[in-house]
Amino acid sequence: MRVLPQPPGIPDHRSANRFLLWLARSEWRPLAWAGGVDSVYRLCGVLMSAAVGATLDSGVVEGDPRSLLVWFGVLTGLTLLSTALVPVGVRAMAFNWYASAYRTVQVVIERSVALGPTLTRRLPSGEVVAVGTDDIDRVGDFYENSALVPASVVTIGAVSVLMLSSHLTFGLIVLVAVPVMVVGMVPLLRPFSRRQEHHRTRQAELTTRATDLVAGLRVLRGVGGERTVGDRYREESQRVRAAGVRVGWMDAALQAVRELYPGLLLVGIVWYGARLALAGDITVGQLVAFYGYTGNLAVAVRHLMHASSLFISARVAADHVVRVLSLEHDHPDPEHPADPPAAPCDLRDPASGVVVAAGRTTGVVCSDAAGATALAERLGRYREAEGDGADALLVEAATGREVRLRDLPLRDVRRRVLVASNSAHLFSGRLREELSPDEGLSDDRLAAVVRAAYADDVVRQSPAGFDALLTERGREYSGGQQQRLRLARAFGLDPEILVLVEPASAVDAHSEAAIGARLAAERKGRTTALLTTSPLLLDHTDHVLFVDGGRVVAEGSHRDLLASAPGYADTVLRTVSTSGKP
Prior knowledge:
By secondary structure, the protein is of the alpha/beta class. It has helices at residues 16-26, 28-61, 65-115, 117-122, 125-144, 148-166, 168-215, 217-223, 226-279, 284-325, 369-379, 410-416, 431-435, 443-452, 456-460, 479-493, 509-522, 535-538, 558-564, 566-573, and strands spanning 345-349, 354-356, 361-366, 393-396, 402-404, 417-420, 429-430, 469-470, 497-501, 527-531, 543-548, 551-556.
């Protein structure tokens, strides 16, 4: 038994068709196996029609009981073989759904993780959600039913050979009618594709609005705007419904064509065969066999048409998958990476003059919140600095060698510099896995980082302790509890350089003071940048920098700056100046 998921490989995202072809190449063995099993199953149906005809002619018409028993044995064998192939074929087709859908999910998730914030800046959230829900279903459905194509071809080929060998005219009718029926369906496929694309786009837009609505529901209720936004959502929902109805009408037309064309062929062949039987040109057994052949042929043609519809749907879905896979990162890796500096390192931001000294806890106070956010993004290489020579640097403490963050592979930067902000999420799952994503922390170490983040009470809140289950974003916890759990997770990762952005803004003063004292002890001797305006946290730092107007304008200890830098005191103590006096 194969275990899923498997390593997905490198997808071909040059176009939707190339992506679908890459999936087929990646899973060609199970696809071939499913096609082979279904082909044998369909072939058994064709041979059963031939056996029934031979039974009638040899055993009934000619009165040969021995021949009748032989053909009954053949029919029994074909029936048993068909029955045995059913569970094998269903399992093979189901595996193809899972393999193709999971492989698609894997490559999309890998690319999403690599893109990071780039993904949400380039694509709306609804588009990404739709890829992970609706699109993978469409891709999976196509590959699940892909076995119908070779099975239908085998059926058509077998029926053509048997009919040609029995009656030339019948065989020629089949050879001409099947391509005509398939081609007759083509004019409906293009509008079907357009309507599906329109419906898919509308669906993604509606999902985006729904996620925005849920995320901002508390704010909307505060300003009384939930009814207005709800009405807009209802209007967009109706447009999505209308687009879905149009897709449904076109799909119904395709299904009608799939029934009409094979049905007309069946009526024509039975009518023509009956005339030949009455004229004595064919036997009764051949007429019955031809009826069975035509029934199998009608099923094969319907399956080909159905596979065509599924391919159109899968191609629309693959086009959106490719859109995600084709996105380029805002901060691509350098073509020629620099040699990484040896630890310990200072972290410098030339644009502001901020220097986070190696082995120390440096407090950074910005006079405006936007400036603090921009600084944190530059220090973690989430934002490129403007102007030459303004890129954030890692500076070897021992040699003074400077290396720009943009000259290092992004993976190395993320490994060495961790920016922990309040926009980080808690994911669903066990608390243990959330605090130690790689599961490399022992229970003792987990307890230590939880204690350092003053989150002991959060863990004790559940009898399961570290095995407690978190819902999405840890919604069962308050804002302050979530913040402390995020801080514990950052401590557990133990990066070389940790950049904390307002890590205690949602907790009470007592907890804030405890976090400040424990943070200093937890990160003692390691490089930490603490971007905050909290005096309770800043009092536990080794050094403080005050950034005003985008530049460092004062530095020293927290208490010295309170006495010597009025702007710093105004920012930290949240006082309002009047006539130049605090």
